[in-house]
Specification:
Number of domains: 1
Helix content: 40-55%
Radius of gyration: 18 Å
Number of helices: 8
Length: 198
């Protein structure tokens, strides 16, 4: 039984690594807009604050490379954003060393509220967007990354699997509570990467 479970997990991880879906994001700003809309669906003011803050936290120019856009989204949706004033690529890679699970947005909202509050002044200074541009979905794909090397040579996340969705966990029987829409087991304990495969 354990061998079958291990085989299924390894097969899933291999499939995720070698068949990543193409990014549906137009540029880095679009990643932040999508995430902000999911966290604050009815609050445009808070969406703007979130986008401005996230642009400040991911200000490292390397994050602008198209092949990192889905990784930014994965990082945000798996609870990787804590209290740092800047997100380094190596810190994000460290976050994905253990298998991760996409969180329900209700877990992300309180920490994002705190991060917005703590970085408000610096984020506003860093912001170069006009007010009407913050939530407008970009039309273009953004600028081509400034590199002559293809993504398979420069992508630092190469070989690191994408996070599990709740549906994938349920499909492989890795959650302890079937039909759960949150990252908790039957006892209310948060499911982490360490719980996968137990």
């Amino acid at each position: 039984m354990r061998f079958k479970l291990l085989f299924l997990v390894l097969a899933l991880l291999t499939a995720l690594v070698f068949s990543l879906p193409p990014s549906n994001f137009r540029n880095q700003l679009h990643v932040f807009q999508t995430y902000a809309r999911d966290i604050y669906p009815d609050d445009k003011v808070q969406q703007k604050k979130a986008v401005v803050t996230l642009r400040y936290l991911f200000r490292n120019p390397d994050w602008n490379k198209a092949w990192y856009w889905h990784r930014i989204d994965d990082f945000l949706r798996t609870g990787g954003l804590k209290s740092a004033s800047k997100v380094a690529i190596l810190a994000a890679i460290g976050h994905f060393e253990q298998p991760q699970v996409i969180e329900d947005v209700r877990y992300s909202k309180p920490s994002l509220d705190k991060i917005i509050k703590n970085n408000k002044e610096n984020a506003n200074k860093h912001n170069q967007l006009k007010d009407h541009e913050i939530l407008n979905t970009p039309r273009s794909l953004g600028s081509v990354p400034k590199t002559t090397a293809p993504p398979h040579q420069t992508d630092m996340f190469k070989g690191i699997p994408r996070p599990f969705t709740q549906q994938e966990l349920e499909m492989y029987g890795l959650t302890r509570q079937r039909g759960s829409s949150s990252n908790t087991d039957a006892r209310g304990k948060r499911i982490s990467g360490a719980d996968i495969g137990q």
